[in-house]
């Protein structure tokens, strides 16, 4: 069993300096007292030689490679320089203060006055203690700064590594997307050339941009060769708009005329609510019958080629019956209204004494004198019915042409003669859509990742700056105090060595 006194303490080497080097501050250099300091340039050269040397088993790259290095054009973070504790100590080293104190102590022997020399010797010994204390504090501050730089350097280094990894990922992703975009553009150009050749070979227009357009174009051409020309959709010209407006307006205008006639027939006292009811009934009657004429004309046009529908003669008979009913009702209403208006005019004139012979008044059953109004009203009703008939047949014609065109397109697709041309026409559109979907594979946390790294880096830099400032401020205050004390001591030594000359009574008494 050994005693505690026999245990030898472990051998330790005092640490002189710790520096962080490398592009990402990942290399920690430890320097101990008593060891020679390696040359930084030589160390960097050895590291560069170690990095640039090819791995074992691989041949060295030839010397005739081009000088272009894509890594030089990649966005990279700035590379910080290595940090050392001396760069954060804005004070003079203790050796300079000690040298100054030694020089001043050497001048003390030149002071002639023994009392002053003894007092200054005592003050010099106290100043030596102050300088020694400053040296101890300086070493402690340097050790503290080295520890702070080492601790915060880990956080800074990891933050820089994460930022560099994220930036490399985004650069690689962007480069890959750019290469894919260029490849897609080249494929689109080749597809356009093949589309042009395919369209010209089948006799289609070179500006056809899709398979449906190609089939529609070929169907229209085949129908035209067979004598079934497909008229393109009519543009709404001025005359077409006027006709449609008249067809709509006629339904309501004739309805208003019917409402007025109904009001004269059933509302002799001109009650307001009866007038509104009569006008509404006339408009509804007119619109309903004219819509029925439109629908019957539409069905009569579609009946020959549509299975399950009645014979066209049935729809034609329905159109004639509805038109006759409409004309009969309108004629009766207007005939009766004309008779009533004529009788009221005659009665009003008799009451005012404008008629001398009431026996000469027309009989109630006699023909009215305003038969032209009835004819005009029936003509308007006939025109409205004819406009509804034309609208129905035009709507049916457009439907039949679309069905015939769709049937011919289906036949062309079933034949398969235009399959290669249709594929070439659509291939360009598919490639363009695929190119539009190209996007870098974004990291789902890339914005948060960058902001987090920035906050972490700022935290470590602020922590380093705050600790460095606190240590440097304390040491700076102590250094200024030691310097001020040494300056005062130097002034006292100079005053003791060269006292001011005495003049007058002092010189005689001295």
From TrEMBL:
Bilayer-crossing regions: 242-266, 272-293, 314-333, 371-390
The keyword Cytoplasm appears for this protein: no
Record's compositionally biased regions (Low complexity): 52-62
Membrane recorded as keyword: yes
Entry keyword set: Membrane, Transmembrane, Transmembrane helix
Disordered: annotated segments: 1-67
Lineage: superkingdom: Bacteria
Protein name (Swiss-Prot/TrEMBL): DUF2207 domain-containing protein
Organism of provenance: Deinococcus aquaticus
């Amino acid at each position: 069993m050994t005693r505690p006194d026999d245990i030898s303490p472990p051998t330790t080497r005092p640490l002189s300096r710790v520096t962080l080097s490398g592009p990402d501050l990942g290399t920690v250099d430890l320097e101990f007292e008593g060891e020679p300091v390696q040359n930084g340039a030589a160390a960097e050269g050895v590291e560069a030689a170690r990095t640039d040397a090819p791995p074992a088993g691989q041949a060295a790259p030839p010397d005739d490679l081009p000088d272009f290095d894509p890594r030089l054009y990649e966005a990279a973070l700035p590379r910080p320089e290595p940090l050392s504790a001396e760069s954060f100590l804005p004070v003079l080293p203790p050796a300079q203060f000690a040298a100054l104190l030694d020089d001043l102590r050497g001048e003390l022997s030149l002071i002639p006055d023994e009392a002053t020399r003894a007092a200054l010797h005592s003050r010099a010994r106290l100043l030596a203690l102050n300088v020694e204390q400053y040296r101890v504090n300086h070493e402690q501050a340097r050790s503290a700064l080295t520890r702070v730089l080492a601790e915060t350097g880990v956080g800074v280094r990891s933050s820089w590594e994460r930022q560099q990894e994220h930036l490399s990922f985004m650069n690689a992703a962007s480069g890959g997307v750019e290469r894919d975009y260029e490849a897609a553009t080249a494929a689109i150009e080749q597809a356009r050339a093949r589309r042009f050749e395919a369209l010209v070979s089948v006799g289609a227009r070179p500006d056809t941009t899709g398979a449906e357009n190609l089939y529609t174009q070929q169907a229209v051409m085949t129908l035209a060769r067979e004598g079934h020309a497909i008229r393109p959709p009519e543009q709404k010209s001025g005359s077409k708009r006027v006709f449609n407006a008249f067809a709509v307006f006629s339904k309501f205008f004739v309805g208003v005329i019917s409402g007025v006639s109904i009001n004269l027939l059933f509302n002799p006292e001109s009650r307001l609510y009866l007038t509104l009811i009569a006008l509404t009934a006339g408009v509804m009657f007119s619109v309903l019958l004219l819509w029925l004429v439109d629908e019957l004309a539409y069905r009569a046009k579609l009946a020959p080629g549509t299975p399950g529908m009645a014979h066209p003669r049935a729809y034609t008979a329905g159109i004639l019956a509805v038109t006759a009913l409409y004309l009969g009702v309108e004629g009766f209403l207007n005939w009766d209204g004309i008779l009533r208006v004529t009788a009221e005019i005659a009665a009003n004139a008799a009451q005012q004494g404008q008629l001398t012979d009431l026996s000469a008044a027309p009989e109630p059953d006699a023909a009215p004198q305003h038969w032209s109004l009835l004819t005009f009203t029936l003509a308007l009703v006939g025109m409205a019915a004819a406009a509804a008939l034309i609208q129905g047949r035009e709507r049916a014609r457009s439907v039949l042409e679309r069905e015939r065109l769709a049937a011919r397109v289906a036949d062309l697709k079933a034949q398969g003669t235009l399959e290669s041309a249709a594929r070439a026409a659509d291939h360009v559109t598919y490639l363009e859509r695929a190119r539009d979907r190209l996007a870098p594979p974004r990291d789902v946390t890339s914005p948060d990742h960058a902001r987090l790294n920035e906050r972490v880096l700022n935290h470590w830099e602020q922590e380093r700056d705050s600790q460095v400032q606190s240590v440097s401020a304390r040491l700076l205050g102590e250094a200024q105090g030691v310097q001020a004390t040494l300056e005062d001591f130097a002034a006292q030594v100079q005053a003791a060595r060269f006292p001011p000359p005495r003049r007058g009574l002092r010189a005689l008494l001295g």
